Recover the amino acids of this structure.
């Protein structure tokens, strides 16, 4: 009664724009998690984008055929596990730049395959009118679970294992870590997260195009990860919020996103390799250290972020017989 | 051999020339500097864009436009090296981290270049003006056709490939280059300036990518800003097939990939050629990671 219809409509559209912004942030955060867990473990894989496309199309096509959402997600996850495992075996001998190249090639070829399989995927035009199956709440749930899993791999023993693998796989092997197996597990985990991100996207926004994968998606995902920081899941989330939010708050730059993102990637990768989260973390640590005037905090904080250069962390793995946390 | 097959072979040779010019830079930079320069596709796009802008401002023939495009693109590549890669090389000690940082920054550079070209060309196909170059097709016999562009491409690719190979193998600087590739730090002790060589390597790779881009753009009529991405995939296959850092291998690999693609198209399943290219990448990486033509050294695949 007495509500101004114009105001209501504008409020409604305001909410809608922001809802889709928040949803995009969540989807991109999932994709960033997928990239993060590989890079953090020293696996140079950029294959997440390929799984994003595959997951999105699988969920979208199933939803269009009236399959229940739970089944769609189950198929997406199972498919990502199987395909991720197969790919990880195929890529098993590759490391470093060779792996990066092969996985970028995988991303590019998935775009081609999807574009060409017109009868199933709708070709270059993409899939339209996918029934909307998810809301913001459910997506938050998926992201929260993923973040929880990531958090588990960042702390304690698992966190130290991951860090040693990144810093020196020979040392890791010498410490009894099954590096090959771990790398395969990381790749599969990354595949699942990437596919989940794609599935969420398709079921939130009711459309997906092949051009959303490929090189541009690699740029976006890397921008998020580099900007936010790849050490913790917080970095992925912060990066997604910034990267998705920035063009909205500053519309004039939206036609130059490539330049802005590209420039941001370069500058941050060069001067602040641990991203925004790393910067904040360092800042807080400095303040705390100054406040207390003791060096103790430096040891405390290693478990959270991990230092930028690796030598120290390799020692973070407890040698047999030495109690954890011993200096 | 019928006329159609001959025409297909000519097509494959022209295409292979483009691939060779494009992939040589990628292979050289990777082999010598340990940088997987994902901006190579953007440089391939930048070359024709510079040619397009130059030719619109001043009506000049190809013989003037091509060197300008090559030099400008080469200088942009030098900016990447001096402004970014050199800094990373100096500040990041850990090898894995250094390679990752360079890869990431090269992706950033690719995004910048691609966006600038896309915006300046209105996101559509752009054509290098006609006064720059008039394609002429010669008929040999009744059905066999060859264009002047095919000839230019093949001659240029082979000439530059041989020149580069000889330079790396025989010249003083080439020897220094191989020393840097083998061990950058120790070669410094022998008075080799790794910085200057790195800048020169990037210049060569940018200039070659520009030559490939300009001639490719002329042969297909026009290109748009997405062209770099798709050819990056092919260049990967060429580099992997030829062996990273091997110049002869890269040239031969380029013609092999082009031949395979032409054969696939001739068989009527052309839309799957990228999938086949990817299959080639995986297969070679799995079976013979050092490339079919073994480079002088193999390491960490």
């Amino acid at each position: 009664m007495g509500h101004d219809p114009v105001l209501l409509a504008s409020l409604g559209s305001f909410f809608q724009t922001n809802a889709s912004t928040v949803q995009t942030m969540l989807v991109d955060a999932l994709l960033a998690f997928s990239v993060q867990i590989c890079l953090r473990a020293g696996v140079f894989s950029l294959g997440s984008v390929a799984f994003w496309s595959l997951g999105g199309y699988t969920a979208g096509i199933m939803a269009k055929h009236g399959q229940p959402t739970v089944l769609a997600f189950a198929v997406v996850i199972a498919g990502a596990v199987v395909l991720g495992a197969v790919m990880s075996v195929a890529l098993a001998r590759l490391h470093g730049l060779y792996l990066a190249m092969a996985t970028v090639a995988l991303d590019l070829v998935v775009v081609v395959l999807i574009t060409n399989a017109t009868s199933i995927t709708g070709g270059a035009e993409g899939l339209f009118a996918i029934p909307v199956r998810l809301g913001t709440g459910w997506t938050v749930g998926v992201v929260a679970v993923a973040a929880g899993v990531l958090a588990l791999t960042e702390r304690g023993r698992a966190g130290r294992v991951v860090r040693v693998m990144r810093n020196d796989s020979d040392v890791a092997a010498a410490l009894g870590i099954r590096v090959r197996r771990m790398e395969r597990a990381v790749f599969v985990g990354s595949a699942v997260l990437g596919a989940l991100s794609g599935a969420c996207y398709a079921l939130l926004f009711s459309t997906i195009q092949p051009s959303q994968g490929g090189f541009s998606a690699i740029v976006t995902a890397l921008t998020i990860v580099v900007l936010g920081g790849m050490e913790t899941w917080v970095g992925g989330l912060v990066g997604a919020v910034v990267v998705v939010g920035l063009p909205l708050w500053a519309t004039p730059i939206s036609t130059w996103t490539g330049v802005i993102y590209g420039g941001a990637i370069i500058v941050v990768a060069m001067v602040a390799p641990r991203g925004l989260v790393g910067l904040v973390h360092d800042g807080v640590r400095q303040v705390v250290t100054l406040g207390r005037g003791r060096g103790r905090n430096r040891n405390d904080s290693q478990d959270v972020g991990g230092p930028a250069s690796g030598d120290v962390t390799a020692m973070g793995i407890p040698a047999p017989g030495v109690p954890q946390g011993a200096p | 051999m019928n006329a159609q097959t001959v025409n297909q072979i000519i097509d494959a040779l022209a295409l292979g020339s483009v691939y060779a010019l494009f992939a040589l830079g990628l292979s050289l930079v990777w082999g010598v500097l340990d940088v997987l320069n994902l901006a190579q596709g953007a440089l391939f796009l930048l070359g024709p864009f510079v040619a397009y802008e130059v030719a619109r401002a001043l009506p000049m023939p190809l013989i003037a436009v091509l060197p300008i495009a090559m030099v400008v693109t080469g200088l942009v590549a030098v900016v990447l090296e001096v402004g970014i890669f050199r800094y990373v090389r100096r500040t990041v000690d850990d090898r894995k981290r250094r390679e990752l940082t360079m890869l990431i920054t090269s992706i950033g550079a690719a995004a910048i270049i691609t966006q600038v070209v896309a915006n300046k060309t209105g996101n559509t196909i752009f054509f290098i003006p006609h006064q720059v170059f008039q394609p002429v097709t010669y008929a040999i016999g009744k059905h066999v056709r060859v264009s002047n562009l095919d000839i230019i491409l093949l001659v240029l690719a082979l000439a530059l490939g041989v020149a580069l190979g000889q330079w790396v193998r025989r010249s003083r600087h080439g020897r220094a280059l191989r020393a840097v590739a083998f061990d950058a730090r120790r070669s410094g002790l022998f008075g080799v300036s790794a910085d200057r060589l790195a800048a020169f390597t990037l210049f060569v790779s940018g200039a070659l990518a520009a030559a490939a881009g300009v001639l490719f753009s002329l042969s297909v009529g026009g290109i748009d800003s997405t062209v770099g991405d798709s050819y990056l995939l092919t260049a990967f296959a060429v580099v992997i097939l030829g062996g990273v850092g091997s110049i002869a291998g890269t040239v031969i690999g380029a013609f092999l990939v082009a031949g395979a693609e032409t054969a696939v198209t001739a068989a009527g399943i052309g839309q799957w050629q990228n999938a086949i290219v990817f299959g080639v990448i995986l297969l070679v990486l799995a079976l013979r990671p050092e490339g079919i033509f073994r480079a002088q050294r193999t390491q960490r695949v």
About this structure: The two ends of chain A are 69 Å apart (CA to CA). Residues 297-327 of chain A have pLDDT under 50 and may be disordered.
